[in-house]
């Protein structure tokens, strides 16, 4: 009886803490989006370094080894969520969505706290990737269709991974659309609703991605599900174009 009561207390405390962190994320997003119109748009490759000056790799569920990554990705891994949201709002999408066609590796970025980083990692790698492995990025194909890439959980996600071990699941449609997060601007939106039944937890899933200024082969994204608070509580991630194997 005491054990049951203890479990209930711990569960309730976790639920309250999680709700508080989600509210914090949403308030933060509202403030940043509202103030973004007064911030100059980034236009060159040095701006990302200025944005994250003094930061270091946050180490929270970094999904890729730094030795094999583009420099811009390493910088993104060291940025906090508020700076990532600022960067997203200052960035712009590719003018032609078809330019994205190909394989892109990816990793999660900071989501504001150890708890939210943990939740993002569990949702992405364990539930979204259940039976498929750890999330490894996305593949964009013709006809505005794409899939997510997964690696066996035992593999370390890194550039140059043996593609024979990649599993592709969770299809989406992508196109240039008005941004749900940043009004009066556009993003490449990835929608999953056509490929998941209405009662699937991923039916309302949606991503928005944009080019990192000065680094067209690196994309910054925000992913969300409606039941998790939508884009205001979205989780940042990044993608980088996979190098072609000889």
Estimated share of beta-strand residues? 25-35%
Question: What is the count of β-strands?
Answer: 8
How widely separated are the two ends? Answer: 63 Å
- Tell me the domain tally: 1
The biggest beta sheet reads: 8 strands, antiparallel, barrel
The radius of gyration is 18 Å
Give average pLDDT, whole number.
83
- Helix tally equals 5
The H-and-E topology, N to C, reads as: HHHHEHEEEEEEE
Low-confidence stretches: 40-47, 49-63, 156-160
- Multimeric status of the protein: single chain
Identify the strand order in the major beta sheet. 1-2-3-4-5-6-7-8
Percent range of helical residues: 25-40%
Feature tags:
eight-stranded antiparallel barrel; signal
Walkthrough of the structure:
The protein has 246 residues and is α+β, with helices and mostly antiparallel strands. It has one domain. Helices cover 28% and strands 26% of the residues. It has five helices and eight strands. Strands 1-2-3-4-5-6-7-8 form an eight-stranded antiparallel beta barrel. A hairpin with a 2-residue loop joins strand 6 and strand 7. The N and C termini lie far apart (63 Å). About 11% of the residues have low confidence. Keywords: Signal.
Structure summary:
Residues 1-19 form the signal peptide. By secondary structure, the protein is of the alpha+beta class.
Q: Could you outline the blueprint of secondary structure elements for this entry?
A:
Elements lengths: L1 H34 L11 H5 L19 H7 L3 H10 L11 E7 L5 H14 L6 E7 L4 E7 L15 E12 L7 E6 L14 E7 L2 E10 L10 E7 L5
Antiparallel strand pairs: 1-2, 1-8, 2-3, 3-4, 4-5, 5-6, 6-7, 7-8
